[in-house]
Structures are given as structure tokens and as C-alpha cells.
Amino acid sequence: MKGTATKMSIMLASTLLATGCADKNQKENVIEKPEITVENGMLTPEVLESFGRISEMTPSPAGKQIAFCLTYESIEENKGNSEIYIMETESKELKRLTTTAGSENSLQWIDGGERLAFLAPEGKDKKPQICSIKPDGSDRKVHSDVEAGVECFVFSPDSKRVVYGSTVKPFDKDSVLFDGLDKTTGRVVNDLMYKHWDEWVTEIPHPFVADIENGKVANAKDIMEGEPFECPVRPFGGAESFAWSPDGKSLVYCAKRQKGMEYSFSTNSDLYLYDIEKGETVKNLTEGNEGYDTDPQYSPDGKSLAWLSMATPKYESDKKRLMVMDCATGEKRDLTEGWDYWPEEMKWGTDGKEIYFNAYYEGTEPTFKINVATCAIDTIAGGMWDYNGVTPTEGGKVYAMRHNMLQPNEIVEITNTPCNAEAENCTELTEVNKELLAQLAEVKVEKRMVATTDGKQMTCWLILPPGFDENKKYPSILYCQGGPQQAVSQFWSYRWNFRIMAANGYVIIAPNRRGVPGFGEEWNRQISGDYGGQNMKDYLAAADYLLEQPYIDPKGMSAIGASYGGFSVYWLAGHHDNRFAALIAHAGIFNLEAQYLETEEMFFADFDLGGPYWDKSNAIAQKTYATSPHRFVENWTAPILVTVGELDYRILASQGMMAFNAAKMRGLEAEMVVFPDENHWVLKPQNAILWQRAFFQFLDKYCKHGE
Known about the structure:
Elements: H1 14-17, E1 21-22, H2 45-48, E2 53-59, E3 65-74, E4 79-88, E5 94-96, E6 98-99, E7 105-110, E8 115-122, E9 127-133, E10 141-142, E11 152-155, E12 161-168, E13 195-196, E14 199-200, E15 204-213, E16 216-222, E17 242-244, E18 250-255, H3 260-264, E19 270-275, E20 280-284, E21 293-298, E22 304-309, E23 321-326, E24 332-334, E25 343-348, E26 354-359, E27 367-371, E28 377-381, E29 386-392, E30 398-404, E31 407-414, E32 426-428, H4 434-438, E33 444-451, E34 457-464, E35 474-480, H5 498-503, E36 507-511, H6 521-525, H7 534-547, E37 552-562, H8 564-573, E38 582-586, H9 592-598, H10 602-609, H11 619-626, E39 640-645, H12 653-665, E40 670-675, H13 685-703
Parallel strand pairs: 1-6, 35-36, 35-37, 37-38, 38-39, 39-40
Antiparallel strand pairs: 2-3, 3-4, 4-5, 7-8, 8-9, 9-10, 11-12, 12-15, 13-14, 15-16, 17-18, 18-19, 19-20, 21-22, 22-23, 23-24, 25-26, 26-27, 27-28, 29-30, 30-31, 31-32, 33-34, 34-36
Helix pairs in contact: 9-10
């Protein structure tokens, strides 16, 4: 449990730095753990940027060591740097493996646990290449020299082959049109799906299978050569798109074999079986399912294949079914058919009898295991935490990362026995941020059940500021979640961070309104085709619940949110009946008709909005567009802060600019922060600090009285 004497705090002192392998030529530019002073227990934007960020926790096959990436950010250099660490699971001894100016990532054990493979920038172009190192930090090798760089990779079980993702040039560039124009920046677009989130489609990811000869990638073959299709699937597909059979003779890969308009309106990704000896794709394993099929994984004996599947076309937030196929007969089973929740990630147990996964459940994300034969599901780690990266190892040991609203990721060992959803049932192994967290003033998180307008009970998280006194009056924040189908669980965010909001003296309520996972399929799906409907009533119910509390200043409440949360703020701006003293929207949808035509993945808009706005016979679509926030600007009364990123192609910056312009034309107090170099998120350290400063400066101006 937390605080046991056997745990070892991760301290990045000079003695620890000396234990790892270092690139002496780059050492001067290495970003290390920042020195930060916490004054009066206050979590400031600068302190928030100083947390160590654990990711990619990867136990060795025998479970005796855990490799992970640890990232620190430099405000001065305006970037972050990720390094590799190894922990001995028995002694908790920690060793740093890399000390470089370029981040390492994509960890995978190879050679039976004798080496650790990863991606790192190499060569004169500093493109990501496949590298490896021994667990003692010695013998670093560079295995690949791929011109376009490597995006992701998976070694075969015997480490003699590798499949990797890299990009190829488009197939339809008009050579006559562009002849002699090597410096032109123009693009010719003749079909849909010409952009993804924050990038123009100028290259296509393809899977390559290669041999490892004398430690080098050799004989690489593009297994989708000549096909204008994606694998891994943009924008977030990676190594989870590939699965080697245990004997290394077959490879399953995930691809989306559509392009242009067909691609833009489809969520139909499929799993394909590639025969290594034949050198060809021999079968579509998921043919006939029109929704997403992703994350293939062979069982340890190679007799079964598991994957995550969605049944509904165009619905990117459909229930994820945990499917298992008998590789000999082709028989498929949905292991979670009778369960009203769904896995977010999964791993086979080493004996092949169970599958471990995390899933959103009633406002948290516990860890579960399911018996493959009986489909019986047990919770094995819970409490007020979100778990991720669950990985079982030999001997029945299970490791994962976990975080909550008060602290970022740490690595834990899960006891691996059934428990109830309130039991943590694990031991924390790392304490990367113990020293920093100990300096911060205490913040409390409580679960509250709020009655909705249609007689339901809604789970809400209430976050209370340091030194909370129920006899005082506090300004407050209604948090509006994005997605829209994204859980309001025990998440830790570096942007929408509840702990820093509470540290600034605010009481926050974060409702799991209609349209979020973790409360059953009906609750999750209700929002589609009902933007501006019941979920907005849920928000107002949460706001009214908070306003009823004697410690809340009725003139100091705000509403905040990003993406669909930004849409929610714009909608509430025209319907809040003077509940809110201030509003903040980041990357929000202001005009639904424009959004339908501006976004890049049309399947999302088509399904969730109900269809095109010009289809007057479509009652669902017409109902949706009638609730567009831009139609209610005449009712806006509250001051508003708008923030946008100009590299955001999911919700264009023009949406926020329209909202800001409308507010100014209405004569309202309004401010806007524009980030030319950010996408749907705000990721660069100095931009992140500016965002936080603007956030609290604006809220304090309108929500704190007499200060």
C-alpha cells in the first residue's frame, strides 16, 4: 500500500544520473528534472509543468524488471524530453538507461528480455529509428535507417523480424501540374479526407515487414505496396495495430482500406492476416463488420486472437466489444456481450485463460480480468483511481499505472485477486512526484450524486480547495467535458487540472452528464443526435446543485470546457438565466452547420449531428442544428474567454473567432487567446503557462469579489 517502507522514491539526483548510459555529445542539452520552489503550498502553472510524467510502463517477460519512460519539461527551452528507466521489481532499485537530448519512446522487450527496444532520433536528419539497449544501460545499438523514419514497431517473438510503420508518398500527385515548381507550397485537393486533426495528408502510413540481419533492419517489404490506404490508421494508430503469431509465421494488422469521401464517412477498419512465408495478405478476419476493429492480440499459444470491435458504422464512440476468435475454426465470440461497460485496452494473461483490461466504471477506471471460457468478470483494482497500461507477467503478477485528480501517473503492482470497486488492491512502486506533492496544500475530492431533470441519479465529482471552510463563500466552476463521449473519471490533466483550480480558491463540480462512458450503453449513446438536449439539462442540474450549497457564492460561478465542452459553454451562454458570472471555451463548436462541413472525419459529424443540415426531411438533424449556439447569441450576457489553436483541424480556430466576434458585437466583456502553433490541445510548455495565467486572470476578475 501507499507509504510502505519497501518503496523507492524516484529521485533524479546526480548520483542517479551517473548510473545510466549517456550520449556525451548531447548531454549539455538534456532536459532534466526542473528545480522548483513551492511557495505557501500553492500549485502554480509553473509547478504544474514541473511534474514528472511516467508513461509506457513495460514489465519484462518474467516480470523481474519494469521499463518506463519519464518525461520532464523545460519552460525555458519550451519543450519536453523523455528518458528510459528500469526498476527491479523485487528490490525497487532504479536505474536510468538513457541521458540524451532526443526523447526515447515506444518501449518493447526483445531477445527474451535480454534487450529493450525503443525509438529515438538518429542520423543526420534525426528521424525516429529503432534502437535497443541492454537492461544495464550498455551496448546501445541503432537497428534501422529508414529514410522517412519509423513511427511504431513490433518485433516478432523470436526477435528475428520486425514490423514497423513508416510513411510513403501519395500516389496521385499530378507531375505535369507541379513540373518545375519544387518550391510551391500549394496543394491540389480533389477529394475528402485531406487532413487529420493537425496535419495535411501529404504522406500515408504503411506497414513494412523486415528481417533483422547482424543487428540491422534488412529486406524491408511494404506489405501494402501500391495501396493508397492507411496502416496504422490515422490519427492515433500505432504499434497496437500489429500482432505477431507466437510462431512468427503470421502477422495480423489493422488497416482502413478506404480513401477520400468513402474514408471520411466510415469507421470501418478491419484486421488482416498476413502470411510471412507467402509474403501476402491472405484474409480479412473481420469482413462484414462495418465499425472499428482494432488492437489485435494473439493468445500465448497462438490458438486464439482477441481484439476490440465496434458494431455501429460511423459511431466512433460505440461500445467496444472484447472479441475472441478461434484461429482454427474462425468462430468468433463477444466475451463482453452481457456487460454494459467496455474495455479501453487489454492484455492476455500469460496462461491464456484470462484477459486483463481497464474500463470506465461509474466515474473511475478500474482494472478487470475476464475468464475467456466462462466470460466471468472480476474487478482486481479499484478505488478513486484511473488505471492504465495493465500488463500481466509470469507468476501471476500484474502491473499497471494509475493516476487521479490529485496526482499524475505512478506504477503499481496489482494484487491480482478479486475485489470490490472501492478497493485499491495494489501497492505503489514509484514515487516520482512524492517530494513535489508533499509541498502542495491538501485538496479534497468527493463523489456526489445529483438528481437530473428526468429522474436519474448523476455521478458528479466535487473538488474542494485547500483549507476548505463550509462557513465561507467560494467562487465555483462547472466543468463541461469534451468528447462528447469522454469519461469524467479520475483523470489527471495538464490543461484542465482540477487541483490547480482548487488551489486558486475555486470549488469545482465535474458532472458525468449524458453521453459519457462508464454508466452503460444507453447513457453513453443518448447524446448522439441530441446536442443541446438532455445533457445540457444535466449540466444545469449540476450547476443548480452547487448553487444550493451554503458555501457557494451565487454571483461567482463560471462554466468552462474544451471541444464539445467548449460547445457546451457556448450553448450555456445563451441559456443559463444568469447562473454564470464568466465563461471559458477552448476549441469549442460555435456554429454546428459550419462544423459539419469544416471537420475532417465526416463520420463523426454525420453520426453525432444526425446528418447534413440541408436535409430538411431529417428530423434528428434539424433538431440538432436548431440548438446550435450561434443561434442564441442574442441571449448572451456573461463575459467570455475564448482560446483556440490555429493548427486545430478537428474544430477550426474560426469557430472560436466567430464566438469572440459575436460577444464583442454584443457589447460583452470578451477576450481571446490564439496559439498559431497549437492544435486541438495546448502542448508547448510556455503556451501552457500562458493559457493557465489567462484562465485564472479572467476567472478571478469576474468570479472573485472583494479580493
